[in-house]
Amino acid sequence: MAEPSTQTVLGNFADAPFDYAGIRSQFFKRDDKFYVRTDGRDGQLATFEIRYTFGVYPLQQYLIALSHGRLQALSIAWDARPRAQGGQRWFHLNGNERVTSTDELHWTRPSQNWNYMCADCHSTAVRKNYDPGADEFRTRWAEISVGCEACHGPGSRHVAWAEKGAASSDSTRGLTAVLNERRGVHWSVNSATGNAVRSRPRTADREVETCAQCHSRRSQVADGYEAGKPFYDYYRPALLESPLYHADGQQRGEVYEWGSFLQSKMYARGVTCSDCHDPHSGSLRGDERPGGVCATCHLSTKYDTPAHQRHPPTAQVTCVSCHMAATTYMVVDPRRDHSFRIPRPDLSARLGVPNACTSCHMSRPARWAADQIASWRGGDTTSQGYQRFADVFAAAERGAAGAQTVLRALAADTSQPAIARATALAELTAPGDRATLVAVASALDAPEPLLRLGALRSLLMLPAAQRAQLLGPRLSDSMRTVRVDAVGIHPGPTWVTSDNQKSALDRAASEFAAAQRYNADRADARARLGTYLAIQGDLAGATSELLAAIGRDPFFVPAYANLADVYRAQGPARDPDAERILLRGLSVAPRNAALHYALGLTLVRLGRASAAVTELERASALAPTNLRFLYTYAVALYSNGKVSASLRTLERVLAMDENNRDALAALASYLNEQGRTALAKRYADRLRALQAQDPQP
To answer: Is the pLDDT score of 115 beyond 60?
Structure first.
């Protein structure tokens, strides 16, 4: 990030035109300032001054100052690559999608806001300083770009150390954050395996978490992060969720490196970011061929050979070609996947995930590549590599039979990466059987914050008393993000059992509110606070926050569904208001399953049964693996006399979750009413067997 000048601006501002979605933008210079004439939020052409440059290579963006302290990233960017590579041109970051002023991705919208989306990673010691009362940003930074303090914390003690003559007695050199996990460590390469072993285990994640502040897909829950402080006190990282990741954990959305690296065998064996990257120069510690950075841990005489590479030298295949496949983001920016996986074209053939082989051999099918690899191994197809969870997440995504069972098994598999296990926990439906409840309860006490965060996500649909019991200890968790997430789904003070727990609830609730106020510029934070207030019984406050969320960003769909729930809680007189707000939401997101589901429930309450079934059917079609949607649709079908369709739908629920108590109870009841008592008894017996289990973990 830099002030615009003839030295920092790379783009062509010599009255250069650019056409996109029916709009001709013009880049020009006047009185030593840089401008663009393009479409504003109202869709009309206007002239905007370039306030900052953003980035250098392979592209450069430009920041424009709008009202109330907002800096917005223009979606027309400069391709900084050489002309021979297709660069030295203006291009639109959304390609051929035709993003116009009415679209949520337009450069004037919240999704392109620098204050929230970009600043924390691209400048040093950023303070967002959003004032919700004035709807204004007063964002400040200590350094406009990324400087020393971004990785080492405040530097005043380091300056004092230097001014005293760099006394050798201070091994920290006065640094606030000393990233010394690699100090005194060496890697010994085993000549038999060709791989290295760390001289001593890595016992801390300080360096990796310092990098994660910017190199992870995450949201921020508090201001004031400094290098060396606990990552989970300030950030909530994304798990391996679709559409951010493919089912096998490969990068899909723009997830950066941390979530991929945590999946890797290298991370599990103690590798840190600076084993491969020089953080001060930004370069690799050598190139990516054996003999360069890879040779730190992998013996060149084993891996830099035709027997391993299976490609002739003329093909110029490097280690990363096969083990760190690249995905291109922002049209021109290829980034390598840091999960360091073996190519699995067999998974591509079965599950449709990408693979490194056919990304080069594009004319060949995945099955061909899988057969080639099997032939190299003498027909052996059993080598799965380190990441072995693709089938589990694929089964969960398509709602396959037994998906809950394999998710539970993955969550308990300590040989698999914690981020994959946390994702499995988050994918579990509300624990309705003892085995799932035990798995979730165990994860809530796990030493890894990721597991605790994942486990919390499966608790929302539990009964209040059971939820409060499980959440109680997490209200005093050592990590703020866990406390914030726990209190956000806690049923409230009615369910605390001691003065100590009441104090913990109050403290966590205060942190939760502070986290939402910090992000009050975002619709999701306003909606989260509104939903929390509704759970606590403050329906007026909830309504205000949810309306504010919709006003802040009309494309944020959950706010409509949550506001409809708040209207429902106020009684039948507000059901028409719920219908209106849901229809308003569907006008901007007509294919959103949650809105169709909520509208279906509202229509049931309004007595419009036929229309309700149509909406619930639509919700189930759009989200075919959502068990709650399917169950409710089945009940509506039965209530409207469509018995066979209802029973088939309930069987679909059981195919995905064999212990789903709602479906078992409904089948037992409905079949009994239809005179099919023997079959009804089988379902009733299964339900009683579940209920006989001790409900406590």
So the answer is: yes
